[in-house]
Here is the input.
Amino acid sequence: MHYRNLHDFIFRLEREGELIRIEGEVSSNLEITEITDRMSKSPKGGKALLFENVTGSSFPVLTNAFGSERRMAMALGCDNLEEMEKKVEGLLATKLPDGLIGKMGMLPELYSLSKSFPRIKNNIHPPCQQVILTGEDIDLDRIPVLQCWPKDGGRFVTLPVVFTKDIEGRTRNAGMYRMQVFDKRTTGMHWHVHKDGRHNFNAYKKQGKRMPVAVAVGTDPAVTYAATAPMPRGMDEMILAGFIRGSPVDMVKCKTIDMEVPAESEFILEGYVDPEEKRVEGPFGDHTGYYSLQGEYPVFHLTAVTHRKSAVYSATVVGRPPMEDCYMAEATERIFLPPLRMVLPEIIDYWMPWEGVFHNIVVVAIHKEYPMQARKVMNALWGNNQMSFAKMIVVVDDPTMLKNHSQLLAKIQENLDLTQDLVMTEGVLDVLDHSAPHPLFGGKLGIDATERLEGEPTRRLCDDNELNEEDILGAIRGSKVAVSSRSVGLHTRNPAVLVSVKKEGLSSKHVRERFRPIASSLGCILVLYDDIDLEDSSLVLWKAFNNVDPLRDMDLVGNGVIIDATKKGIADGHVREWPDEIEMSKDVKERIEQRKNEFGLG
Ligand SMILES: Cc1cc2nc3c(=O)[nH]c(=O)nc-3n(C[C@H](O)[C@H](O)[C@H](O)COP(=O)(O)O)c2cc1C
Here is the structure.
């Protein structure tokens, strides 16, 4: 099953009962976010939403189209994401047979592979150019670009497929980088320093040349997904899209720049980025659940907007997980497992918990055959493309644990020797990490939870502890900063105690000192801010993964560890701004609550 364009996909979503059309008028300013956020957080990701009546615009808005496992699989034309993993695995396992007959036998396979390559069409009237606007006619205000969250710096194009080329014009790159609308004809270009779009830009900057950039918004789902995929530099994402679709992506020449774009796109923004120009972009309520901070980014000047006559504007809303991007990341998890295994064949499987917002934690299951292999895997992952952003890597040897999370936690709590099994190091971090003292790099934590092999030091595990809730309460109360606590795995060898604290002007270091005397007897003490419900495990994990720089915020004390997941500030040596958590404004929440039945949120 493949889709020629977004309309085909919308048609299929609707036919399968996966789409709700919303006829009532809604605003692209916060209201669409509130509805989409609530839909994303309903069981199994709810439905895709097509807003047909958006205040001040004649274009409908599509959100949450990828926002469930089923819809993500449908987007990739398969029944489930594992099927796509198998397809990639099959491709990578292809070996050229010996002899002419054998080679001839492969022709059908090679023919089907050749269909992955994009085709340049000389179509003079492609769908994406049914309407062509240039010069003074360009007006981004006509497009219902969303302001997603109350403290956003403005309106952001959130699902753009940004096309660039290397300076020689030979290799094409497609990446998804949000774009803040500055005015009718300019936007920001938020490619992070680690990304290929930025790499291409750096070469233009070096030569002081203007860089042509084309942006497709609303494409067939394989193209949209491919722009988010961590492809190796120099590989055209349109080949991946063609492979997923099983048919080539048809590309056409832009009207005002020397670039090609998918012919079936809804909207195309053509223009250039001037290497000498920068402008403050953000803040933006990001997929971490926090606002990403303002920063200086290049400016994109539009030379043309072209679109279909009946164009649908496609957007995503990101925020505290789970949201639509979680399912896109799950697709990446599956599709990129086979290529990862080519470099690290011992990897059986991996899992990126939503609460870790992808760059904060990866749990990997390996076939372990020799001492310290878990360390090898950690180091290799920390050196591998976008996996290098991972702040925490946990290595286990039983893949069933990746699906059975209480078993995983129990295993770690029962088997870990905190004095031997933790690996602390430093390295690159995602731009969106806010916990490290410096942007872009900071502490990393590896946890080796694999079974020991002969030749590895034996774990020094304490006998079962005899702690009881009373002991814990007493010990925690003695700290004088704790507001409440909750124990997890009390009778394991490494019990954990979650503690919410009031810092009351104390620095993090001083707060942690209050727990030092009891740390060794309590196991793991996770310190959180007092505004948090300790019974909400997902919330606790999300805070812990987001707010900890392992090198600065963890103290190993005997057989125990104190982990500080509170907000940090100047008193803690954290001079960077600490971002706010995203929250919708009360009036918008109330307005949507009153109309919830209209939006399928009843
Ligand atoms: C919804 C969404 C929004 C994203 N926004 C950005 C962004 O603003 N900047 C960025 O550098 N990466 C962003 N990403 C991640 C990149 O698209 C992703 O890392 C991609 O592999 C980059 O491609 P590249 O390496 O070819 O540049 C986003 C991903 C998604 C799913």
In short: The pocket of flavin mononucleotide is lined by residues 158, 173, 175-178, 190-192, 195-197, 228-230, 316, 318, 325, 328, 386 (CB under 6 Å).
